[in-house]
Automatic annotation (TrEMBL):
Principal EC category: oxidoreductase
Organism of this sequence: Lactiplantibacillus brownii
An example Gene Ontology molecular-function term: oxidoreductase activity
UniProt-listed Enzyme Commission number(s): 1.2.4.-
Keyword check for Oxidoreductase: yes
Keywords (A to Z) from UniProt: Oxidoreductase, Thiamine pyrophosphate
Top-level division of the source organism's lineage: Bacteria
InterPro entries: THDP-binding, Transketo_C/PFOR_II, Transketolase-like_Pyr-bd, Transketolase_C
Keyword Nucleotidyltransferase: no
Protein name from the UniProt record: Alpha-ketoacid dehydrogenase subunit beta
CDD domains per UniProt: TPP_PYR_E1-PDHc-beta_like (cd07036)
Pfam families recorded: Transket_pyr (PF02779), Transketolase_C (PF02780)
Length: 325
């Protein structure tokens, strides 16, 4: 057991999987000798060689095509897209090819590809470096979308993703990379995909969040507990497919819910959660489902970032509003 940051947990998972399966390959922009822009692959090329961990040209579309070709030849690619805002160049490979392959071939071919990419605000990066585009990805049939909220889940979910035979988009929150540490096992372990986690039990209201918003929600829950308000917090972990059973079970218990996301409001994950509860859990509700999100604008420049991102006080205000409905 060692205390590690979120990004150290990711490096740990990559090292263990490279060591256990020679068919795993890591590639992307600057992931080799430089160890990636955030050092997620630091030291892996030196340990496993340039044939297993290598740099690609600055061309995301090529990274996507290379991943598909390698997967068809029996490899288990782990490409890195340097920032999530750069995925537009590779969406044909993701949405038009790799996510359809199982359906297209009647289940006879697999696409064991785990695409890693950092995303999320709060670090004042330039334009297209912090966008939360998970809603785009979650709407692609055949593509699993995973995003951990803590170091333990980061390692376990990444190992599960790499070992999975379907394509996974693994989203790593920029702000969490070095802002939190946790004790995690040194050996390989898995955290199940497609399974949400009740990270805090409560009886009065459910906050449903993912990634960095889970930690903000937990702070709100701790604050409200001092007033005798019992808040349950559900970490979605996998955004597509959603763990409907855990969400509905929690709402059935508390009768009230707030769905929280960092991304823009329209057609996002929180909207999907709210619609699920309305469709299958309406009779459990004592109040409408609340939502907290960023506004429907282009991601702002760094100076305005703190005003644009959903903050802890917004989650608290919406929670109180739904409680007092």
């Amino acid at each position: 057991m060692s205390k590690k940051t979120y990004i150290q947990a990711i490096t740990d998972a990559l090292r263990l999987e490279l060591g256990s399966d020679e068919k795993t390959l890591i590639f992307g922009e600057d992931v080799g000798k430089n160890g990636g822009v955030f050092r997620a692959t630091d030291g892996l090329q030196a340990e496993f060689g340039e044939d297993r961990v290598f740099d690609t040209p600055l061309a995301e579309s090529g990274i996507g095509g290379l991943s598909i070709g390698l997967a068809l030849e029996g490899f288990r690619p782990i490409p890195e897209i340097q920032f999530l805002g750069f995925i537009f160049e590779t969406l044909d490979s993701i949405a038009g090819q790799m996510s359809r392959e199982r359906f297209r071939t009647g289940g006879t071919r697999h696409m064991p590809i785990t695409i890693r990419s950092p995303y999320g605000g709060g670090t004042h990066t330039p334009e297209m470096h912090a966008d939360s585009l998970e809603g785009y990805l979650a709407q692609i049939p055949g593509l699993r979308v995973v995003t951990p909220s803590n170091p333990y889940d980061a390692k376990g979910l990444l190992i599960s993703s790499i070992r999975n035979n379907d394509p996974v988009f693994f989203l790593e929150n920029l702000k969490l990379y070095r802002s939190m540490k946790a004790d995690i096992p040194d050996e390989a372990y898995t955290v199940p995909l497609d399974k949400a986690n009740v990270v805090r039990e409560g009886t009065d209201i459910t906050l449903i969040a993912y990634s960095a918003q889970v930690n903000q929600s937990l702070k709100v829950a701790e604050k409200l507990e001092k007033e005798g308000i019992s808040v349950e917090v559900v970490d979605l972990r996998t955004l597509s497919p959603l763990d409907e059973e855990t969400i509905l079970k929690s709402v059935e218990k508390t009768g009230r819910a707030v769905a929280i996301q960092e991304a823009q409001r329209q057609a996002g994950i929180a909207a999907n959660v709210a619609s699920l509860i309305a469709e299958k859990g309406a009779l459990y509700l004592s109040a409408p489902v609340g939502r907290v999100s960023a506004p429907d604008t282009v991601y702002p420049f760094g100076l305005a970032e703190d005003d644009w991102l959903p903050a802890e006080d917004e989650i608290e205000a919406k929670t109180r509003e739904i409680l007092n409905y």
